[in-house]
Amino acid sequence: MIPTATYRIQFRNGMTFDRAAALVPYMKQLGISHLYASPIFTATSGSTHGYDVTDANEIEPSIGGREGFDRMAQALKQAGLGLILDIVPNHMAASLENPWWRDVIEHGEHSRYARYFDIDWSRRLTLPFLGDSFEAVVENGEISVKPDPQSGKPALAYYDNFYPLTPASWQGRESEVLGLSDPAALIALHDEQPYRLMSWRDAPRDLSYRRFFEITGLAGVRVEDDAVFDDCHRLILELVHSGVVDGLRVDHVDGLADPQGYLERLRQQAGPECYITVEKILGKGEHLPAEWPISGTTGYEFIAALAEVLVDDDNLDRLRDAWHEVAGQPVDMRAELRDARLLMVDRNFEGEFTRLLQLVGEIAEREGVALAPELLRQALRELLIAFPVYRTYGRAQGLSAADQALLDKVVARVKASASAPDADALDVLTRILRGAVTAQQEAATFRTRFQQLTGPLMAKSVEDTLFFRQHLDLALNEVGAEPIPRGFSVARFHAEMKTRLERQPDALSGTSTHDTKRGEDARARLYTLTEAPELWAECVARWRQVNQTKVVFLNDGTAPRGVDTWMLYQALAGVWPPTLDPRDAAGLQALETRYVEFVEKALREAKLRTDWVDSNDAYEKAVLDYARHLLSPDNQDFLQDFAASLQPFIRAGLVNSLTQAVIKLTAPGVPDIYQGSEGLNFSLVDPDNRREPDFVALAQMLNDDTSAPLYSEQSWLSGQLKQHVTAKLLRLRQQKPPLFRRGAYLPLAAQGEHAEDVIAFARTHADDAVIVIAPRLVFNALDGTLAGPHAERWEATHIALPAGLAHRRYRDLLSGDVLTLEDSLDPGAVALNGCVLLISV
């Protein structure tokens, strides 16, 4: 069953199955068809997200266990709502709490689970969870042999962790081993284990298992093996087959060895009716492989497409000039992207790169190719950092025609670049990736490893490095966004929606998720910076002057620098609550806690003057103190100016928010409402975006009579108007599923004075039609207030209607009025700040 709309709920952190069951009436009233649950299977103790699964066949006890889950499922069924589960096939927790992983630690290659994890068994299993080398922690007396509190067996005890000893190393001499304290004897005992305890700092260069991105606590799982797939999906498939679960969201499908093979098996096992989507980031112009038996992605590309509508392309260069002036020099984004990718290859993923290079050398030797290792290294490095998309999808038999064409394009670009490597070395890599070598099995292994590495390299270099370094407009630094500057246009958005309808009409369309860099309404507000670049630049210059006394001079430069402040003020502008009074000390304190946590993460993710690996305490302290000062109740000169100056950005941002929501709810795709985002979501990056919304307030707001305050300033500022419109459109989707699932997408042309300030389209199916007109670029048109319909603004603008839409009666979804349209539509006659929603009657 294809959902008409989903509602994502984050479990854990206080959200239990019983609490979710209590929200079912609210979701039903809102117009949701399916609850979309974050991972619910047993994870590490205290997990805040559930992606660190320790038992894929048990439901997390701390959120209600199987009994609580069944109660929630029953409540959903009684209300006629479905359930979608977020599943994690790519990795599990590399934790002693994971019985499979623990068994592998104890028994090594002889464990029945040794092949469940993606481990290189040519050497001992590396466990990078010490604060220093094994020898150093032994010398410091931090490791001893004690009975494991759970099993009673001897274990290497490191603080609260008990690493089991392999039986052959202690059986028959248990009393001798227990209490062992001599450093040499401890080192000798450690050498007998199938694992090697090591410092966490050594993980990037020396790891024997595939990890999830850079997270050593998450070990790759080999679901390409039939037995592993079966054991990892036993409970998942039981829930699907029993009718309790209607759909599955597959986390990080690009991490799998063979995504197509996995999805084919999942589809075969789950059945044709199961709704399946995948977390997959598509580049501009990239499409899912047509062979994948799924409904589509989880919608990051939809978020990126919305920028086409809400960015003022005509003013973007002026904003860029202002940013460059603060930075002190123009920024070459291609060079910055290359630097970020090189950092990932050379440092953060050094071990994965070294393993690939080793495979290349072995294959080249077998093929009789005599090339210096350094030439192969340079060629591999350049090929990896040149990949424009997350990955190709070659299988054991080689690359598809489409992937071969992509590879040829990338190779040609590398050969023509200023840093072109040796052509023969690059040709060797190309032949290996294509499988045009005699060492077919080795080539297939290399291809798989290469494809599993390009995705993490892309994600960590762009989303988690470049986007924290370059701050032209933070709204553009979103998951799925393009790192290189380009133009934005409504025409491109229309083209993308037509393609979306053709290729993945049942994919999720998100605007906020648990992984977005900021909430949808913060992003909508920050888009408005492109409409008023000079005003924003003036504000930043004034605020920097007001707070100049808090800038600190360090050995490595001032802190914060001008480019840092551009980011700090912009991030604060995005998260600032619309109605926060600058004199509200409690409100400022609550905001400061969230804001400072974000700033610390942003500084470390940028990896410039500080890092997660080696933090620069002096720099961090200086910038965090500056950030705290911004929100100090004593800093009223700044706070009053900031709050007042932000008002036009707040108002225009709220109009953007409504436009964004209306498009999501009417364009091709299945709208996904992230918890609380039917109201206003001004969150920052995780963990801030995973905070639980005020569901009580949301339910009360939905139940309030919204007919009177529909045009009021308060209804905009509280999020009630957005929630009200969302509910109306969700209910309409339930009434007319074919219209929104398969209905044609028709761009409509605006003419007149404000033609560029609206986006207009229609959806049609059989006799049904809905006309959507939404405002854009209204920063200079709101006259200091959101109240009222602002109909006069649109009097000189009209929308031409094609034959299929003209000469018909429509109902205005916002007012309930019925009207007859001839061959054009005047938005001023029916618009709420330019927003028109008409359904044929």
UniProtKB/TrEMBL annotation:
Listed Gene3D superfamilies: Glycosidases, Maltooligosyl trehalose synthase, domain 2, Maltooligosyl trehalose synthase, domain 3, Maltooligosyl trehalose synthase, domain 4
Domain of life: Bacteria
Ranges for domain Glycosyl hydrolase family 13 catalytic: 11-417
NCBIfam families in the cross-refs: trehalose_TreY
Record-linked Pfam families: Alpha-amylase
Identification of the protein by name: Malto-oligosyltrehalose synthase
Cross-referenced InterPro entries: GH, GH13_cat_dom, Maltooligo_trehalose_synth_4, Trehalose_TreY
